Amino acid sequence: MSAPEWTRLPDLASRGVGGGVVWANDEFFAERENLVNRAEPAFQSYTFGHKGQVYDGWETRRRREPGDDAAIVRLGLPGVVRGVVVDTAFFTGNHPVAATVEATSAPGHPDPSELDGWRVIVPRAPLGGDRKHHFAVTAERRFTHVRLTAHPDGGIARLRVHGDPVPDPELLVPGAVDLAALENGARVVGCSDMFYGSPTNLLAPGQAAVMGEGWETARRRDDGNDWVEVELAGQGVVALAELDTSHFKGNAPGWASVRGRDGDGGWVDLLPRTRLQPDTRHRFRVRVPEAVTRARLDIFPDGGMARLRLLGALTDAGLTALARRFRDLSS
Fold first, then answer.
1. What angle do CA 137, 214, 304 make, to 5 degrees?
2. Phi and psi at residue 212, in whole multiples of 5°?
3. Confidence of residue 174 (pLDDT cuts 50, 70, 90)
4. Domains of the chain listed by start with CATH number
5. Is the CB of residue 254 less than 8 Å from the CB of residue 331?
C-alpha cells in the first residue's frame, strides 16, 4: 500500500528543520529525542546497554499503575498539520496498544509546563508493532506543538508531522526574506522527478550535511531536463539567487536556470541558463524588477542540488497576504 499524498509535505517536527522533543514523562529505555530524528529507524540485534536492548526510538518502562505516557514535540516549522505518522519500527512485543495525538499553538518560546489549549487531531487509535501508521488530519489551524500519548506505555520509533508551514509575519523583515524558504511558507507545487531525494529538501533550513539531504533525480535517457516549481512565501522581488550543489560531485547538473511569474502571468527569466560546478554554492545577483509569486528551477539535464535560496523583498501585497493567512489560521 502506497503512502498517502500528504507524506510528501514537509515534516514539521523533524530535527532537520529545528524540531525537538521538549518533554516526556518517561524515557527509561530509549531517549525521547529519537522521535524526531530525520533518518529512518535502524536496529542491530543483540545490542545491549545497561538498561537492555538499545532501540532507535522512544521507549518507556512497563507501567505498574493506571495511566499513560506522553511526549511533547516543538515543531521546527509551525504550521497546518495535514497528517501524522506514528512509526513503531522494530518495536514488536513492546509497543503501545494505542496512541493519541494532540496539538496546540503558543507564541514565543514557552516552557512545556506553560502549554495549554490542547486539541485532539488524531483520536485514540490502535497501534501494531513494527509498522507505520498513517493518520490524516483535517484541523485548519496553525500549531506550534504536538503531544503524543502512548496508551499505556512502550516504544515508538518516530513521529512524523507532515503539513504546510505558516510563518509568523512578526519575524519577517520585508526587505530581506528568503522567498523560497520552507520556514517562511514556501512550498513545492510541482516536480519532474524525485527518484533519489525529495524536492522539498531544496527549501529546508540550514546547509545540507550530506548528499541525501538534497534533491536528486534519476539519470535521464531522453532529450528533456528536470525541474521544480515553487510557490514562494509571498509576492516579492528577487535580488539574489543561490543554487547550492554541495556534496553533489559526479552527479551535479551541468547547467541551471530560474524563472519566475506572478500568479498565472507569463514566465520571466530571473537567472538565464548558467553553467554550474559540482560541490559548490553558486550565488547570482538578480536584476529583474518584476514581482513574482512562483519560481521554477530547471536543471540540465538531470542530477542533484542541495539547496535553492531566492533572497529578496516582499511587496506590500505579499506581506499583507502573509499576515492575513497567519491571522486566519491562528484564531
1. 130
2. -65, -10
3. confident
4. 5-165 (2.60.120.260), 169-318 (2.60.120.260)
5. no
Query: Residue 200's closest CA among 215, 178, 185?
Result: 215
Residue 29 — very low, low, confident or very high, per pLDDT cuts 50/70/90?
confident
**Three-state DSSP class for 142?**
strand
Angle at 41 between CA 39 and CA 46, to 5 degrees: 135
Residue with cell 553553467: 275
**pLDDT band (50, 70, 90) for residue 106:** very high
The model scores a pTM over 0.85: no
Give the helix/strand (H/E) hosting 293. strand 292-300
- Asked if 274 and 284 count as a contact pair (C-beta separation under 8 A), the reply is yes
Contacts of 23 (CB under 8 A, 6+ apart): 32, 71, 72, 112
pLDDT interval class at 52 (50, 70, 90): low
Measured in degrees and rounded to the nearest 5, phi and psi for residue 296 equal -125, 120
The DSSP code for 11 is B
- What is the chain's mean pLDDT, rounded? 94
The CA-based angle 210-186-71, given to 5 degrees, is 70
Which parts of the chain fold into alpha helices (H)? 316-330
**Largest pairwise CA distance in the chain:** 67
Quick check: helix, strand or coil at residue 295? Answer: strand
